[in-house]
Write a structure and sequence with these properties.
The chain has about 550 residues and is of the alpha/beta class. About 35% of the residues lie in helices and about 20% in strands. About 5% of the residues have low confidence. Bound molecules: acetamide and zinc ion.
Length: about 550
Protein backbone atom coordinates (compact mmCIF):
# COMPACT_ATOMS: atom_id res chain seq x y z
CA UNK A 1 0.00 0.00 0.00
CA UNK A 2 2.78 2.38 1.00
CA UNK A 3 4.64 1.47 -2.19
CA UNK A 4 1.55 2.17 -4.29
CA UNK A 5 1.13 5.49 -2.51
CA UNK A 6 4.74 6.46 -3.21
CA UNK A 7 4.36 5.37 -6.85
CA UNK A 8 1.19 7.44 -7.18
CA UNK A 9 2.93 10.41 -5.63
CA UNK A 10 5.80 9.98 -8.08
CA UNK A 11 3.42 9.77 -11.05
CA UNK A 12 1.58 12.85 -9.80
CA UNK A 13 4.92 14.64 -9.53
CA UNK A 14 5.83 13.59 -13.09
CA UNK A 15 2.51 14.83 -14.44
CA UNK A 16 2.91 18.10 -12.56
CA UNK A 17 6.45 18.66 -13.78
CA UNK A 18 5.59 17.74 -17.38
CA UNK A 19 2.62 20.07 -17.49
CA UNK A 20 4.65 22.86 -15.94
CA UNK A 21 5.66 24.95 -18.93
CA UNK A 22 9.25 25.90 -19.49
CA UNK A 23 9.43 29.69 -18.88
CA UNK A 24 11.86 30.25 -21.73
CA UNK A 25 9.12 29.23 -24.16
CA UNK A 26 7.84 32.71 -23.68
CA UNK A 27 11.06 34.26 -24.79
CA UNK A 28 10.87 37.47 -22.88
CA UNK A 29 13.82 39.69 -23.79
CA UNK A 30 15.35 41.08 -21.66
CA UNK A 31 15.06 38.06 -19.37
CA UNK A 32 13.10 39.02 -16.23
CA UNK A 33 14.91 38.71 -12.90
CA UNK A 34 12.34 36.19 -11.66
CA UNK A 35 9.85 34.31 -13.86
CA UNK A 36 7.65 31.38 -12.87
CA UNK A 37 4.96 29.74 -14.95
CA UNK A 38 1.94 28.03 -13.38
CA UNK A 39 -0.65 25.56 -14.62
CA UNK A 40 -3.72 27.75 -14.92
CA UNK A 41 -4.76 29.81 -17.92
CA UNK A 42 -6.08 33.32 -18.44
CA UNK A 43 -8.31 34.02 -21.40
CA UNK A 44 -7.90 37.17 -23.50
CA UNK A 45 -11.07 37.63 -25.50
CA UNK A 46 -13.37 40.53 -26.22
CA UNK A 47 -14.93 40.26 -22.76
CA UNK A 48 -11.57 41.17 -21.25
CA UNK A 49 -11.29 44.58 -19.65
CA UNK A 50 -8.26 46.67 -18.74
CA UNK A 51 -8.87 48.39 -15.40
CA UNK A 52 -6.50 51.23 -14.60
CA UNK A 53 -5.92 53.27 -11.53
CA UNK A 54 -7.03 56.81 -12.25
CA UNK A 55 -3.91 58.57 -13.32
CA UNK A 56 -3.22 60.11 -16.73
CA UNK A 57 -0.25 57.94 -17.50
CA UNK A 58 -2.03 54.69 -16.62
CA UNK A 59 -5.07 55.75 -18.60
CA UNK A 60 -2.81 56.31 -21.60
CA UNK A 61 -1.12 52.93 -20.99
CA UNK A 62 -4.50 51.16 -20.80
CA UNK A 63 -5.38 52.49 -24.26
CA UNK A 64 -1.89 51.63 -25.50
CA UNK A 65 -2.23 48.04 -24.24
CA UNK A 66 -5.67 47.83 -25.83
CA UNK A 67 -4.06 48.85 -29.16
CA UNK A 68 -1.24 46.32 -28.77
CA UNK A 69 -3.79 43.55 -28.19
CA UNK A 70 -5.88 44.69 -31.15
CA UNK A 71 -2.88 45.00 -33.46
CA UNK A 72 -1.57 41.56 -32.47
CA UNK A 73 -4.80 39.58 -32.68
CA UNK A 74 -7.66 41.79 -33.85
CA UNK A 75 -9.15 41.36 -30.38
CA UNK A 76 -11.03 44.34 -28.99
CA UNK A 77 -10.85 44.62 -25.21
CA UNK A 78 -12.38 47.43 -23.17
CA UNK A 79 -10.79 49.87 -20.73
CA UNK A 80 -12.07 51.59 -17.63
CA UNK A 81 -10.90 53.18 -14.40
CA UNK A 82 -10.84 50.52 -11.68
CA UNK A 83 -14.38 49.62 -10.56
CA UNK A 84 -16.38 46.51 -9.78
CA UNK A 85 -17.10 44.69 -13.01
CA UNK A 86 -18.50 41.27 -13.75
CA UNK A 87 -16.17 40.49 -16.64
CA UNK A 88 -14.42 37.19 -16.16
CA UNK A 89 -11.08 38.48 -17.48
CA UNK A 90 -9.64 41.55 -15.80
CA UNK A 91 -6.29 43.18 -16.51
CA UNK A 92 -5.28 45.59 -13.75
CA UNK A 93 -2.77 48.41 -14.07
CA UNK A 94 -1.89 49.58 -10.58
CA UNK A 95 0.62 51.74 -8.72
CA UNK A 96 1.80 50.66 -5.26
CA UNK A 97 0.14 52.82 -2.59
CA UNK A 98 3.36 52.66 -0.62
CA UNK A 99 6.38 52.30 -2.92
CA UNK A 100 8.57 49.27 -2.20
CA UNK A 101 12.36 49.48 -2.27
CA UNK A 102 12.79 48.02 -5.75
CA UNK A 103 13.05 51.36 -7.53
CA UNK A 104 11.14 53.38 -10.10
CA UNK A 105 11.59 50.94 -12.97
CA UNK A 106 10.60 47.70 -11.22
CA UNK A 107 7.28 45.94 -11.78
CA UNK A 108 5.51 42.72 -11.13
CA UNK A 109 3.25 40.90 -13.57
CA UNK A 110 0.98 38.30 -12.13
CA UNK A 111 -1.43 36.17 -14.15
CA UNK A 112 -3.99 33.75 -12.73
CA UNK A 113 -7.13 32.30 -14.31
CA UNK A 114 -9.25 35.41 -13.80
CA UNK A 115 -6.89 38.34 -13.45
CA UNK A 116 -3.74 39.86 -14.88
CA UNK A 117 -2.16 42.39 -12.52
CA UNK A 118 0.67 44.70 -13.42
CA UNK A 119 1.75 46.66 -10.38
CA UNK A 120 4.72 48.98 -9.93
CA UNK A 121 6.00 51.96 -7.99
CA UNK A 122 5.65 54.25 -11.02
CA UNK A 123 4.15 54.38 -14.50
CA UNK A 124 7.62 53.54 -15.80
CA UNK A 125 7.35 50.17 -14.08
CA UNK A 126 3.81 49.46 -15.30
CA UNK A 127 4.96 50.29 -18.83
CA UNK A 128 7.67 47.61 -18.60
CA UNK A 129 5.10 45.17 -17.21
CA UNK A 130 3.00 45.86 -20.30
CA UNK A 131 6.01 45.13 -22.53
CA UNK A 132 6.54 41.76 -20.84
CA UNK A 133 2.85 40.94 -21.22
CA UNK A 134 3.01 42.03 -24.88
CA UNK A 135 5.93 39.69 -25.53
CA UNK A 136 4.00 36.84 -23.85
CA UNK A 137 0.99 37.62 -26.04
CA UNK A 138 3.10 37.77 -29.18
CA UNK A 139 4.42 34.26 -28.43
CA UNK A 140 0.88 32.97 -27.84
CA UNK A 141 -1.63 31.71 -30.36
CA UNK A 142 -5.05 32.97 -31.30
CA UNK A 143 -7.62 30.15 -31.19
CA UNK A 144 -11.30 30.06 -31.99
CA UNK A 145 -13.79 28.56 -29.53
CA UNK A 146 -17.50 28.54 -30.45
CA UNK A 147 -16.82 31.25 -33.06
CA UNK A 148 -15.12 33.39 -30.45
CA UNK A 149 -11.53 34.49 -30.84
CA UNK A 150 -9.39 34.00 -27.78
CA UNK A 151 -5.78 33.86 -26.67
CA UNK A 152 -5.01 31.61 -23.71
CA UNK A 153 -2.01 32.64 -21.62
CA UNK A 154 -0.63 30.53 -18.76
CA UNK A 155 -0.61 31.78 -15.22
CA UNK A 156 2.72 33.29 -14.26
CA UNK A 157 4.55 35.46 -11.77
CA UNK A 158 7.20 37.89 -12.95
CA UNK A 159 9.11 40.11 -10.56
CA UNK A 160 11.50 42.31 -12.42
CA UNK A 161 13.75 45.33 -12.38
CA UNK A 162 16.71 46.53 -14.44
CA UNK A 163 20.35 46.15 -13.57
CA UNK A 164 21.43 49.52 -15.02
CA UNK A 165 19.62 52.87 -14.90
CA UNK A 166 20.84 53.93 -18.37
CA UNK A 167 19.85 51.67 -21.25
CA UNK A 168 20.35 53.61 -24.44
CA UNK A 169 20.22 53.50 -28.20
CA UNK A 170 21.66 56.22 -30.39
CA UNK A 171 20.73 57.19 -33.93
CA UNK A 172 22.65 59.43 -36.31
CA UNK A 173 20.10 61.23 -38.49
CA UNK A 174 22.69 63.52 -40.08
CA UNK A 175 24.64 61.21 -42.35
CA UNK A 176 21.27 59.91 -43.45
CA UNK A 177 17.93 61.32 -42.44
CA UNK A 178 14.87 59.25 -41.57
CA UNK A 179 11.20 60.19 -41.62
CA UNK A 180 9.30 61.03 -38.44
CA UNK A 181 7.31 57.80 -38.82
CA UNK A 182 10.53 55.81 -38.71
CA UNK A 183 11.83 57.68 -35.66
CA UNK A 184 8.60 56.61 -33.94
CA UNK A 185 9.11 53.02 -35.06
CA UNK A 186 12.66 53.16 -33.71
CA UNK A 187 11.26 54.38 -30.39
CA UNK A 188 8.75 51.51 -30.45
CA UNK A 189 11.60 49.03 -30.84
CA UNK A 190 13.43 50.66 -27.91
CA UNK A 191 10.27 50.40 -25.82
CA UNK A 192 9.80 46.75 -26.78
CA UNK A 193 13.22 45.94 -25.29
CA UNK A 194 12.81 48.22 -22.24
CA UNK A 195 15.43 50.79 -23.25
CA UNK A 196 14.85 54.10 -21.50
CA UNK A 197 17.03 56.51 -23.49
CA UNK A 198 17.17 57.57 -27.11
CA UNK A 199 20.32 59.54 -27.92
CA UNK A 200 19.37 61.58 -30.98
CA UNK A 201 22.45 62.67 -32.94
CA UNK A 202 21.10 65.76 -34.70
CA UNK A 203 24.03 67.72 -36.08
CA UNK A 204 27.04 66.76 -38.16
CA UNK A 205 29.43 67.85 -40.87
CA UNK A 206 27.07 66.34 -43.45
CA UNK A 207 23.88 67.96 -42.23
CA UNK A 208 22.08 69.92 -39.50
CA UNK A 209 18.73 68.32 -38.81
CA UNK A 210 16.88 70.42 -36.24
CA UNK A 211 15.03 73.66 -36.87
CA UNK A 212 16.42 76.54 -34.82
CA UNK A 213 14.20 79.57 -35.27
CA UNK A 214 16.86 82.14 -34.46
CA UNK A 215 19.17 80.77 -37.14
CA UNK A 216 17.10 80.02 -40.26
CA UNK A 217 20.19 79.39 -42.38
CA UNK A 218 20.74 76.18 -40.38
CA UNK A 219 17.74 74.73 -42.16
CA UNK A 220 18.11 76.64 -45.43
CA UNK A 221 21.78 75.85 -45.93
CA UNK A 222 23.16 73.49 -43.29
CA UNK A 223 20.47 70.85 -43.74
CA UNK A 224 21.38 70.24 -47.40
CA UNK A 225 24.48 68.74 -48.99
CA UNK A 226 24.98 69.00 -52.70
CA UNK A 227 25.78 65.31 -53.18
CA UNK A 228 26.92 62.17 -51.35
CA UNK A 229 29.84 59.81 -51.61
CA UNK A 230 29.04 56.57 -53.43
CA UNK A 231 30.33 53.28 -52.04
CA UNK A 232 32.83 52.90 -49.22
CA UNK A 233 35.09 55.73 -48.08
CA UNK A 234 38.03 53.40 -48.64
CA UNK A 235 37.21 52.99 -52.34
CA UNK A 236 39.42 55.49 -54.14
CA UNK A 237 39.06 57.62 -56.18
CA UNK A 238 35.96 58.94 -54.45
CA UNK A 239 32.82 59.11 -56.57
CA UNK A 240 29.69 61.14 -55.84
CA UNK A 241 26.06 60.68 -56.77
CA UNK A 242 25.49 64.28 -57.90
CA UNK A 243 22.14 64.42 -56.05
CA UNK A 244 21.30 67.05 -53.42
CA UNK A 245 20.41 65.36 -50.11
CA UNK A 246 18.98 66.73 -46.91
CA UNK A 247 16.11 67.53 -44.62
CA UNK A 248 15.41 68.50 -41.07
CA UNK A 249 12.91 68.03 -38.27
CA UNK A 250 10.70 71.03 -37.57
CA UNK A 251 10.25 72.06 -33.95
CA UNK A 252 6.67 70.78 -34.11
CA UNK A 253 7.93 67.39 -35.29
CA UNK A 254 10.54 67.34 -32.54
CA UNK A 255 7.86 68.07 -29.94
CA UNK A 256 5.69 65.30 -31.34
CA UNK A 257 8.59 62.84 -31.16
CA UNK A 258 9.60 63.90 -27.63
CA UNK A 259 5.99 63.32 -26.49
CA UNK A 260 5.79 60.00 -28.35
CA UNK A 261 8.93 58.86 -26.54
CA UNK A 262 7.83 60.19 -23.14
CA UNK A 263 4.57 58.26 -23.35
CA UNK A 264 6.73 55.19 -23.86
CA UNK A 265 8.90 56.08 -20.86
CA UNK A 266 11.85 57.00 -23.07
CA UNK A 267 13.92 60.12 -22.53
CA UNK A 268 15.42 61.69 -25.62
CA UNK A 269 18.87 63.15 -25.18
CA UNK A 270 19.60 65.55 -28.04
CA UNK A 271 23.16 65.85 -29.27
CA UNK A 272 24.41 69.16 -30.64
CA UNK A 273 28.00 68.54 -31.69
CA UNK A 274 30.78 70.93 -30.70
CA UNK A 275 33.48 72.02 -31.32
CA UNK A 276 34.03 69.45 -34.12
CA UNK A 277 31.68 67.79 -36.60
CA UNK A 278 30.32 71.28 -37.23
CA UNK A 279 31.01 71.88 -40.91
CA UNK A 280 27.32 72.03 -41.84
CA UNK A 281 26.76 74.88 -39.37
CA UNK A 282 29.89 76.66 -40.60
CA UNK A 283 28.62 76.45 -44.19
CA UNK A 284 25.70 78.67 -43.14
CA UNK A 285 27.57 80.85 -40.63
CA UNK A 286 31.20 80.94 -41.85
CA UNK A 287 32.04 83.69 -39.34
CA UNK A 288 31.97 80.95 -36.63
CA UNK A 289 35.03 79.19 -38.12
CA UNK A 290 38.67 80.14 -37.60
CA UNK A 291 39.36 80.94 -41.28
CA UNK A 292 36.02 82.54 -42.15
CA UNK A 293 35.40 80.03 -44.94
CA UNK A 294 33.85 79.60 -47.36
CA UNK A 295 32.76 76.18 -46.19
CA UNK A 296 30.38 73.65 -47.64
CA UNK A 297 28.26 70.94 -46.05
CA UNK A 298 30.37 67.77 -46.22
CA UNK A 299 29.62 65.32 -49.02
CA UNK A 300 31.84 62.52 -47.73
CA UNK A 301 32.45 60.91 -44.32
CA UNK A 302 35.30 61.38 -41.88
CA UNK A 303 36.78 64.02 -39.63
CA UNK A 304 37.17 67.59 -40.90
CA UNK A 305 39.72 70.21 -39.92
CA UNK A 306 37.27 73.12 -39.86
CA UNK A 307 35.59 73.31 -36.46
CA UNK A 308 34.02 76.11 -34.41
CA UNK A 309 36.47 78.88 -33.51
CA UNK A 310 36.62 79.72 -29.81
CA UNK A 311 35.59 83.35 -30.47
CA UNK A 312 32.77 84.92 -28.42
CA UNK A 313 30.41 84.78 -31.41
CA UNK A 314 30.56 80.98 -31.36
CA UNK A 315 29.51 80.82 -27.70
CA UNK A 316 26.69 83.27 -28.33
CA UNK A 317 25.50 81.15 -31.28
CA UNK A 318 25.70 77.84 -29.41
CA UNK A 319 24.01 79.25 -26.31
CA UNK A 320 21.13 80.54 -28.43
CA UNK A 321 20.86 77.19 -30.19
CA UNK A 322 20.84 75.38 -26.84
CA UNK A 323 18.17 77.69 -25.43
CA UNK A 324 15.83 76.49 -28.20
CA UNK A 325 16.99 72.89 -27.77
CA UNK A 326 16.25 73.02 -24.02
CA UNK A 327 12.74 74.34 -24.78
CA UNK A 328 12.13 71.25 -26.90
CA UNK A 329 13.83 68.55 -24.83
CA UNK A 330 13.03 68.24 -21.13
CA UNK A 331 15.87 65.73 -20.52
CA UNK A 332 18.33 66.56 -17.75
CA UNK A 333 21.15 65.60 -20.08
CA UNK A 334 22.20 67.50 -23.16
CA UNK A 335 24.93 65.79 -25.24
CA UNK A 336 27.48 68.28 -26.51
CA UNK A 337 29.57 65.87 -28.60
CA UNK A 338 33.20 66.77 -28.08
CA UNK A 339 34.66 63.97 -30.20
CA UNK A 340 37.08 64.13 -33.10
CA UNK A 341 37.91 67.84 -33.07
CA UNK A 342 41.26 68.33 -34.86
CA UNK A 343 43.27 71.18 -33.39
CA UNK A 344 45.01 72.33 -36.62
CA UNK A 345 42.84 75.41 -37.17
CA UNK A 346 43.04 76.52 -33.54
CA UNK A 347 46.85 76.26 -33.69
CA UNK A 348 46.93 78.77 -36.54
CA UNK A 349 44.11 81.04 -35.44
CA UNK A 350 45.11 84.34 -33.74
CA UNK A 351 41.73 84.52 -31.97
CA UNK A 352 42.05 81.00 -30.54
CA UNK A 353 45.69 81.63 -29.55
CA UNK A 354 44.60 84.83 -27.80
CA UNK A 355 42.04 82.83 -25.79
CA UNK A 356 44.79 80.38 -24.79
CA UNK A 357 46.92 83.33 -23.56
CA UNK A 358 44.04 85.13 -21.86
CA UNK A 359 42.89 82.02 -19.99
CA UNK A 360 46.45 80.81 -19.17
CA UNK A 361 45.89 77.51 -20.99
CA UNK A 362 48.71 75.11 -21.82
CA UNK A 363 47.63 74.02 -25.27
CA UNK A 364 44.73 73.38 -27.66
CA UNK A 365 43.54 70.38 -25.61
CA UNK A 366 43.08 72.71 -22.67
CA UNK A 367 41.34 75.09 -25.06
CA UNK A 368 38.86 72.34 -25.93
CA UNK A 369 38.39 71.75 -22.21
CA UNK A 370 37.78 75.50 -21.73
CA UNK A 371 35.20 75.36 -24.55
CA UNK A 372 33.35 72.39 -23.04
CA UNK A 373 33.51 73.78 -19.50
CA UNK A 374 32.00 77.06 -20.69
CA UNK A 375 29.14 75.21 -22.33
CA UNK A 376 28.73 73.06 -19.23
CA UNK A 377 28.47 76.15 -17.03
CA UNK A 378 25.82 77.57 -19.32
CA UNK A 379 23.80 74.34 -19.35
CA UNK A 380 24.22 73.77 -15.60
CA UNK A 381 22.93 77.31 -15.12
CA UNK A 382 19.74 76.16 -16.84
CA UNK A 383 19.43 73.06 -14.68
CA UNK A 384 20.87 70.69 -17.27
CA UNK A 385 23.91 68.40 -17.26
CA UNK A 386 26.27 67.58 -20.08
CA UNK A 387 27.32 64.30 -21.58
CA UNK A 388 30.29 64.28 -23.93
CA UNK A 389 32.24 61.68 -25.88
CA UNK A 390 35.39 60.56 -24.07
CA UNK A 391 37.62 63.20 -25.72
CA UNK A 392 36.18 65.63 -23.15
CA UNK A 393 38.60 64.02 -20.69
CA UNK A 394 41.54 65.49 -22.61
CA UNK A 395 42.74 68.79 -21.21
CA UNK A 396 40.67 68.40 -18.03
CA UNK A 397 37.13 67.18 -17.50
CA UNK A 398 34.29 69.65 -16.95
CA UNK A 399 33.28 69.47 -13.26
CA UNK A 400 29.86 67.83 -13.62
CA UNK A 401 30.21 66.06 -16.95
CA UNK A 402 29.19 62.49 -17.72
CA UNK A 403 31.52 60.71 -20.12
CA UNK A 404 30.38 58.51 -22.97
CA UNK A 405 33.20 56.03 -23.47
CA UNK A 406 33.46 55.08 -27.15
CA UNK A 407 37.18 54.63 -27.89
CA UNK A 408 37.19 51.46 -25.82
CA UNK A 409 36.52 51.43 -22.10
CA UNK A 410 39.43 53.53 -20.81
CA UNK A 411 37.46 56.78 -20.93
CA UNK A 412 34.75 55.23 -18.78
CA UNK A 413 37.32 53.88 -16.34
CA UNK A 414 39.11 57.24 -16.05
CA UNK A 415 35.82 59.07 -15.53
CA UNK A 416 34.58 56.64 -12.87
CA UNK A 417 37.90 56.70 -11.01
CA UNK A 418 37.67 60.49 -11.05
CA UNK A 419 34.19 60.35 -9.50
CA UNK A 420 32.31 61.14 -12.74
CA UNK A 421 29.45 59.15 -14.18
CA UNK A 422 30.07 57.25 -17.38
CA UNK A 423 28.06 55.50 -20.06
CA UNK A 424 29.75 52.66 -21.89
CA UNK A 425 29.56 52.54 -25.69
CA UNK A 426 32.85 50.88 -26.70
CA UNK A 427 33.22 50.31 -30.44
CA UNK A 428 34.18 46.70 -29.79
CA UNK A 429 30.73 45.73 -28.41
CA UNK A 430 28.30 48.60 -28.89
CA UNK A 431 28.78 49.91 -32.44
CA UNK A 432 25.92 48.57 -34.48
CA UNK A 433 27.29 50.13 -37.66
CA UNK A 434 29.90 47.34 -37.68
CA UNK A 435 29.42 44.13 -39.63
CA UNK A 436 27.49 41.49 -37.72
CA UNK A 437 28.22 38.57 -40.07
CA UNK A 438 30.49 37.61 -42.94
CA UNK A 439 31.35 40.90 -44.65
CA UNK A 440 31.75 39.16 -48.01
CA UNK A 441 28.00 38.62 -48.15
CA UNK A 442 26.71 41.45 -45.96
CA UNK A 443 25.45 44.80 -47.25
CA UNK A 444 28.08 47.56 -47.14
CA UNK A 445 29.03 48.67 -43.62
CA UNK A 446 31.72 50.90 -42.17
CA UNK A 447 33.94 47.99 -41.04
CA UNK A 448 34.55 46.23 -37.75
CA UNK A 449 33.01 42.95 -36.70
CA UNK A 450 30.57 42.99 -33.80
CA UNK A 451 28.56 39.80 -33.69
CA UNK A 452 25.41 39.18 -31.70
CA UNK A 453 27.42 36.92 -29.39
CA UNK A 454 29.99 39.63 -28.84
CA UNK A 455 27.31 42.15 -27.88
CA UNK A 456 25.76 39.55 -25.59
CA UNK A 457 29.10 38.87 -23.91
CA UNK A 458 29.54 42.51 -22.90
CA UNK A 459 29.78 43.52 -19.25
CA UNK A 460 29.57 47.31 -18.90
CA UNK A 461 31.42 47.24 -15.57
CA UNK A 462 35.18 47.12 -16.23
CA UNK A 463 37.08 44.64 -14.04
CA UNK A 464 39.49 47.30 -12.86
CA UNK A 465 36.86 49.34 -10.98
CA UNK A 466 36.19 49.03 -7.27
CA UNK A 467 32.57 48.56 -6.18
CA UNK A 468 32.18 52.24 -5.37
CA UNK A 469 33.77 53.35 -8.66
CA UNK A 470 31.53 50.88 -10.52
CA UNK A 471 28.47 52.77 -9.27
CA UNK A 472 29.46 55.56 -11.70
CA UNK A 473 28.87 53.26 -14.67
CA UNK A 474 25.28 54.16 -15.42
CA UNK A 475 24.83 51.64 -18.19
CA UNK A 476 25.50 51.11 -21.87
CA UNK A 477 24.29 52.25 -25.26
CA UNK A 478 24.27 50.94 -28.82
CA UNK A 479 25.49 53.47 -31.38
CA UNK A 480 24.06 53.63 -34.88
CA UNK A 481 26.12 55.80 -37.22
CA UNK A 482 24.44 55.94 -40.57
CA UNK A 483 27.08 56.73 -43.18
CA UNK A 484 26.26 53.41 -44.83
CA UNK A 485 22.62 53.11 -43.75
CA UNK A 486 20.51 54.95 -46.27
CA UNK A 487 17.11 53.47 -45.44
CA UNK A 488 15.02 52.68 -42.38
CA UNK A 489 15.04 49.00 -43.39
CA UNK A 490 18.80 48.91 -43.26
CA UNK A 491 18.85 50.60 -39.84
CA UNK A 492 16.45 47.91 -38.59
CA UNK A 493 18.68 45.23 -40.09
CA UNK A 494 21.72 46.61 -38.23
CA UNK A 495 20.02 46.92 -34.83
CA UNK A 496 18.03 43.68 -34.86
CA UNK A 497 18.76 41.42 -33.22
CA UNK A 498 21.87 43.07 -31.73
CA UNK A 499 19.92 45.50 -29.57
CA UNK A 500 18.05 42.55 -28.06
CA UNK A 501 21.42 41.32 -26.79
CA UNK A 502 22.25 44.76 -25.41
CA UNK A 503 18.85 44.84 -23.69
CA UNK A 504 19.75 41.65 -21.87
CA UNK A 505 23.20 43.06 -20.98
CA UNK A 506 21.76 46.25 -19.51
CA UNK A 507 18.53 44.97 -17.97
CA UNK A 508 19.02 41.34 -16.96
CA UNK A 509 22.74 41.00 -16.38
CA UNK A 510 22.63 37.22 -15.98
CA UNK A 511 23.95 35.62 -19.12
CA UNK A 512 22.78 32.38 -20.72
CA UNK A 513 23.83 32.39 -24.37
CA UNK A 514 22.13 29.11 -25.30
CA UNK A 515 18.83 30.19 -23.88
CA UNK A 516 19.20 33.63 -25.49
CA UNK A 517 19.85 31.99 -28.87
CA UNK A 518 16.58 30.07 -28.59
CA UNK A 519 14.73 33.20 -27.57
CA UNK A 520 16.14 35.13 -30.53
CA UNK A 521 14.81 32.53 -32.92
CA UNK A 522 11.35 33.13 -31.41
CA UNK A 523 11.83 36.89 -31.71
CA UNK A 524 12.47 36.45 -35.43
CA UNK A 525 8.80 35.38 -35.69
CA UNK A 526 7.82 38.48 -33.75
CA UNK A 527 9.90 40.71 -36.04
CA UNK A 528 8.05 39.23 -39.01
CA UNK A 529 4.71 39.87 -37.33
CA UNK A 530 5.64 43.47 -36.54
CA UNK A 531 7.30 44.13 -39.93
CA UNK A 532 10.71 44.74 -38.42
CA UNK A 533 13.56 44.04 -40.79
CA UNK A 534 16.41 42.06 -39.17
CA UNK A 535 19.54 40.06 -39.79
CA UNK A 536 18.37 36.44 -39.89
CA UNK A 537 21.86 34.90 -39.76
CA UNK A 538 23.44 36.46 -36.67
CA UNK A 539 25.12 33.26 -35.53
CA UNK A 540 27.69 33.10 -38.33
CA UNK A 541 31.13 33.08 -36.86
CA UNK A 542 33.50 33.41 -39.81
CA UNK A 543 34.82 36.84 -40.61
C1 LIG B 1 32.25 58.63 -32.40
O1 LIG B 1 32.05 57.47 -32.82
N1 LIG B 1 32.91 59.51 -33.14
C2 LIG B 1 31.78 59.05 -31.10
ZN1 LIG C 1 39.78 80.24 -34.02
Amino acid sequence: MKKLYITLLFVAFLIASCSKKEPKEFSIIPQPQSFEIGNLEFKFDNNAIILFEENNELEWQALYLKDLIFNSFGLVVSTSPIKDVRNSSKIFLRINKVPDNKGAESYSLSINESEVTIIANTAQGTFYGIQSLYQVLLSSKLTVDHDKMQVMVPSMEIIDKPLFPYRGMHLDVARHMFPVEFIKKYIDILAFYKFNTFHWHLTEDQGWRIEIKKYPKLTEISSMRKETLIGHYGDKPHKYDGKPYGGYYTQDEVKEIVKYAADRQITIIPEIEMPGHSLAALAAYPELGCTGGPYEVATKWGVFKDIYCTKEGTFEFLENVLLEVMELFPSTYIHIGGDEAPKARWKECPTCQAVIDREGLKDEHELQSYFIQRMEKFLNGHGRSIIGWDEILEGGLAPNATVMSWRGIDGGIAAAKDGHDAIMTPGSHCYFDHYQADRKTEPLAIGGYTTLKKVYSYNPIPDSLTASEAKHILGAQGNVWTEYMETPEYVEYMILPRMAALAEVTWSGKKDWNSFKKKINKHFDIYKKLSYNYCDHPFETNK
